[in-house]
Amino acid sequence: MLRFGIRNRPRRLSKAMGRKEDGHGTGPPGRLERMTIIVNSLVRHERIEGSHQYMDEARGYTERLLQIAAQGDKNHEAMDVANYWLKDKDLIHKLFKVLVPRYENYTTCATRMWTLPVEYPGGKNKTSILELKGNPWPPVVPNPRNNSKSLINVLLHNAKKDYRSASKDGTPV
Amino acid sequence: MVVSSRSLSKLFTSTSRRRFCSKAEGLSNAEITKKRNELFGREKARQLALITRVEKIEVEHVGPPENCRLLMNKGLSTPFNCAMHIQENLMSRSVLALVNGQPWDLHRPLEDHCELKFLHFKDEDPALSNKAFWRTGSFLIGYTLERVFKDQHYVQLCSFPRPRVETGSFVYDAHLGISDWTPSQAELQCMSRVPAKLQFEDFKLERLTVDASLASKMFEDNKFKSSQIPFIAAKSKTGHSVTLYRMDDHVDISEGPLIASTALINRFNITAIHDIESEDYGSLKRVQGLSTPKQLPIHFWNYGILCERAAKLNPAPMPAQWNKEAMATRNNA
């Protein structure tokens, strides 16, 4: 089971299935071809940027790839899938020896997405960042502020504590 | 809730027609306030006149927008004046200053060369600002009590405990001169309007250290404070000084520090008045309140929850005489 919400239907990504110079459309194989390129570069760079649609679609394939790869490199099916999705063959080694051990004990999904701000004037397509968790890059959002000591948070935290202890005792609140 | 205006007017003064008539046995609340204010103003002018020669001090400001060095006047310039030289933002949002690492009121003159830092409510660790805000809450309850009641109810403020934000309410223990009174919600709401209106004013909280003899003269009409002043003075650094604060025309004893101005306050509610029994002072009223700063907006639903909690009796220690060991953690903190 994937550990994040996915769409009911796959996106068609009509641009990826669009016409070639010879006049013929590439169709669903062209779409998959595009996906392999994105998954390949994600496994290599661990953080990539692109249009939200493509990143979101590739995210599901990456998660599924990591899930299947968790069966180990001795498993034929896992090796076949890895062989299909990773066009650069040095990445197969990285997948089984680096990424699979990294996500072994994760209880959450292995990828993370960030929506980037819209540049003026902006179009209908959002730009996003897709990254593998535990990557060596500096965090996307630096130094998250800790607001727990602000006056209102202290008050609300203590009100919550009071409420919980009162409801544990069974006294009406 | 429908409350006839007549029942409220029995208890509270109308601000438009306050009475200044004196009673046979002593001064009224308003007259005492006026007297203290005059004494405070005179003493402040006297202390200012003592500085005959302007000396310069160097103040190193650390922090945003940039570190800088200012040349200020010794004994005259305050951290607020420094902020005026640096950025308007620092003037409007600063709650306290740190002078050589010590909390310092924004309107207290600087005494020597120092390093200066400004604090506000959205700092990484705003504990000092929070405490000053909570202490100011108690101070403002005192302000409210001394002016809302009619002259036949002679209010004597007793003391307030050290500020503890975790308890959910700030407190002032006082003798209200009313027996058998349980305030209704409408009455509390009515009282709350007085401090809540202060957010539209920009009243500075002025600090002044005076001699114990002057402090006892100021508070001679208050039996609790006049008995506490010798102990407060003995505990002070010089052994005979008392620190006073003034906001508008209200003067009270407090160790400080308090916040810079009433413009920093947003919501203010007096949430409950409980009867308490003190060993030394007899039966008193514990007036509790809740307030939030303008810099931290809060949704009314959340504020309602906090108000409900603030109405429960605050667990702060009961007021007692200063010479007792139990009072080490209490009183005009």
Short overview:
The complex is a heterodimer of chains A (173) and B (333). By secondary structure, chain A is mainly alpha-helical.
Task: Output the helix-strand order of chain B.
Answer: HHEEHHEEEHEEHEHHEEEEH
CATH architectural grouping of the largest domain in chain B: 2-Layer Sandwich
Q: Low-confidence segments of chain A, ≥5 residues, pLDDT <50?
A: none
CATH topology of the largest domain in chain A: 50s Ribosomal Protein L17, Chain: A
Q: How many DSSP H or I helices of chain A?
A: 5
Bin the strand percentage of chain A: 5-15%
Rounded to the nearest angstrom, the radius of gyration of chain B is: 20 Å
Q: Which structural category fits the helices and strands of chain B?
A: alpha+beta
Number of domains of chain B: 2
Q: Compute the average pLDDT of chain B.
A: 90
CATH architecture of the largest domain in chain A: Alpha-Beta Complex
How many β-strand runs of chain B?
12
User: In angstroms, what separates the terminal alpha carbons of chain A?
Assistant: 41 Å
Sheet of most strands of chain B: 5 strands, mixed
Shape of chain A: extended
Throw out a few tags for this protein.
heterodimer, A: 173 residues, mainly alpha, 50s Ribosomal Protein L17, Chain: A, 2 domains, three-stranded antiparallel sheet, 5 helices, extended, B: 333 residues, alpha+beta, Threonyl-tRNA Synthetase, Chain A, domain 2, Ubiquitin-like (UB roll), five-stranded mixed sheet, four-stranded antiparallel sheet, 9 helices, TGS-like (chain B), nucleotide binding (chain B), TGS domain-containing protein (chain B)
Give a description of the structure:
The complex is a heterodimer of chains A (173) and B (333). Chain A has 173 residues and is mainly alpha-helical. Chain A folds into 2 domains: 1-142, 50s Ribosomal Protein L17, Chain: A (Alpha-Beta Complex); 143-173. Chain A is built from 5 helices and 3 strands. Chain A has helices at 27-45, 52-69, 76-85, 90-102, 151-169; strands at residues 47-51, 111-115, 127-132. A 3-stranded antiparallel beta sheet of chain A has the order 1-3-2, with helices on one face. Chain A is extended and about 75 Å long. The mean pLDDT of chain A is 91. Chain B has helices at residues 5-9, 29-49, 79-86, 88-93, 127-148, 185-196, 212-218, 223-235, 300-310, and strands at 56-61, 68-73, 96-99, 102-104, 114-119, 156-159, 170-175, 205-211, 241-247, 250-253, 265-278, 282-293. Helix content of chain B is 32%, strand content 24%. In chain B, strands 2-1-5-3-4 form a 5-stranded mixed beta sheet. In chain B, strands 6-7-12-11 form a 4-stranded antiparallel beta sheet, sandwiched between helices. Mean pLDDT of chain B is 90; it is low at 16-24 and 325-329. Chain B has 2 domains: 25-42 and 129-329, Threonyl-tRNA Synthetase, Chain A, domain 2, CATH 3.30.980.10; 56-120, Beta-grasp domain (Ubiquitin-like (UB roll)), CATH 3.10.20.30. The A-B interface holds A 145-147, 149-152, 154-156, 158-159, 162 and B 121-122, 124-127, 129-130, 133, 165-168, 292-293, 296, 298, 302, 305-306, 309. Chain A: Residues 1-14 have a biased composition (Basic residues). Chain A: It comes from Capitella teleta.
